[in-house]
Amino acid sequence: MTLSRESAPSAQAPSTDLEHVVSVGGALADAMNAVIEGKPDVVRTAITALLAEGHLLIEDVPGVGKTMLAKTLARSIDASVRRVQFTPDLLPSDITGVSIYNQEEREFEFRPGAVFANVVVGDEINRASPKAQSALLECMEEAQVTVDGHTYPLPHPFIIMATQNPVEMEGTYPLPEAQRDRFMARLSMGYPTAAAEVAMLDHHGASSPLDHLRPVTDAEGISRLIRAVRTVHASPAVRQYIVDIAAATRASSLIRLGASPRATLHLLRAGRSRAALDGRDHVLPDDIQAIAPVVLAHRLLLSSEAQLARREPLDIVTELVHRTRVPAAR
Question: pTM of the entire structure?
Answer without folding.
Answer: 0.87
